[in-house]
Amino acid sequence: MRALLIEMGALPEQPIVTNSARSYRRPEHGLFGNRIVAIHPHVATNVTDPLDRLRAIRASMALERRRTAFDEALLNAPEVPFGPATRRRRFAGRRSTGANVLPGNISVSNVPGPAHVLHYAGLRQRSNHPAPLLGSGRAINFTARRNADSFDVGVMVDPTKVADVHHLAGLFRAAYATYQELAAR
Predict the structure, then answer these.
(1) Domain extent listing, the chain
(2) What are 68-119's pLDDT values in tens digits?
(3) pLDDT of amino acid 143
(4) What sequence ranges are listed for the domain O-acyltransferase WSD1 C-terminal (predicted)?
(5) What is the CATH code for 2-184?
(6) Any residues with CB less than 8 A from the CB of 70 and at least 6 apart, and which?
(7) How far is CA 162 from CA 12, 21, 134, 152, 169, in A?
């Protein structure tokens, strides 16, 4: 994201913020349905050094994980007057169209996938690429999904804001290579 923003001449002084989800599913919740809370860590686009950037992102994520413990407690509260739907309607921002606006500049999520190799009709599933949605006026959504021993990433962009999704994917691969090199050291 930092490289893209620099190329666009649009790197803000403050870090950009993600809109993400964190699962809080516990064994007592059963096997089906979603149990998620929204998190809004920053991606430290204002930090030049890649290792320092990673540390800043980890610190922001840790803070969000601690904060969402309060959200988890409220999600099971009775609907009125402070249940989930009431809070969403009451505290969501509004665009000029009147539609709800969620916080965050981009969406980033990690959807659990199978830890073991899957087969369909005797054929091994080689990838499990997600097809993320943009939503709420965002320009970019990165969604990652595990597939046995691989990690697949889907990228969705608003073409009026990010003209070349393939270039963005290349920047993503380059950043990943940088972090792999740092980890090898």
Answers:
(1) 2-184
(2) 877 766 666 555 555 555 555 554 544 444 555 567 788 888 877 788 888 9
(3) 87
(4) 33-177
(5) 3.30.559
(6) none
(7) 16, 23, 12, 21, 11
